[in-house]
Amino acid sequence: MELDTSFDFRSDSRGRDPDGHSPTLRRYHQVLWSKSLPGGARFDLDTVTPGEYLHHRSDLGEFFLSSDAVIPTWDRWGGAMGAIIEQLTKAEIESLTAISYTIGGLVVFPSNRIEGKLTINGARGLLRKIADRMDLTLECIRRYYRNEDSPLGATLARYSDFFALFEDFRGYVDFFLLQDLVDDDGSAVRFFLPFDDFMTPSVPTSVDAYRDYAARSVEFIQARNRRIDRWVLSAG
């Protein structure tokens, strides 16, 4: 098994969104997440089901998954965020964008719509309290497993069969190799920006805050890439 955690998935997506058009990214997701669940059952993913990105069907149920980048740069936003972006160099934005399209900056979520409502990917991108951030998404998932409310609570509940696969929050974090986004005992999320029960701004409000956010994001992706490297080595 060989994965290059420095590979930029933009390089083989022909100028389109790597989440849907990078064949390397799709293969990496299939390899990484086709493995045993906390309960011992295998969660094998196929890439041959027509019209589906990743697919699983077994006694566990049927699941449809898609890829999502988890570290937004907000470089296409206008308003106050746009004014902050304008004060950054192109190199700063490109540096964050480039590492966010290595495997450490990407995850999979269920892609099937339920009752015509938003998927997890869609909701986390449209809800301003989340603003596409993985740390805030993970906090919502932590609260879901504790039966606590969050901005994504109703959306996550629609995919209860998916989250049941991992049994609890620790099982979810360990399965997707997200340990570097939680504290040492796995009970609390490490946030990229100051956090106060979803009442603080979800996006940086100054250039300095953006640079702090970018530094913490890069640190997380680098750590997760190293963790993925170790997992691949141990899995053979």
Strand order of the largest sheet: 3-4-5
Integer average pLDDT = 96
Topology, number of strands:
5
Q: Approximately how much helix is present in the residues?
A: 40-55%
Can you put this structure into words, describing what you see?
The protein has one domain. The protein is 42% helix and 10% strand. It contains ten helices and five strands. It has helices spanning 18-21, 23-33, 79-86, 90-100, 120-126, 134-145, 153-157, 160-164, 169-175, 207-235, and strands spanning 35-36, 42-43, 54-58, 61-69, 106-110. The strands form two sheets. It has a three-stranded antiparallel β-sheet, with helices on one face. It has a two-stranded antiparallel sheet with strand order 1-2. The N and C termini lie close together (6 Å).
Short description:
With 236 residues, the protein is mainly alpha-helical.
Topology diagram in text:
Layout: H1 18-21, H2 23-33, E1 35-36, E2 42-43, E3 54-58, E4 61-69, H3 79-86, H4 90-100, E5 106-110, H5 120-126, H6 134-145, H7 153-157, H8 160-164, H9 169-175, H10 207-235
Antiparallel strand pairs: 1-2, 3-4, 4-5
Features:
about 240 residues, three-stranded antiparallel sheet, 5 strands, about 40% helix
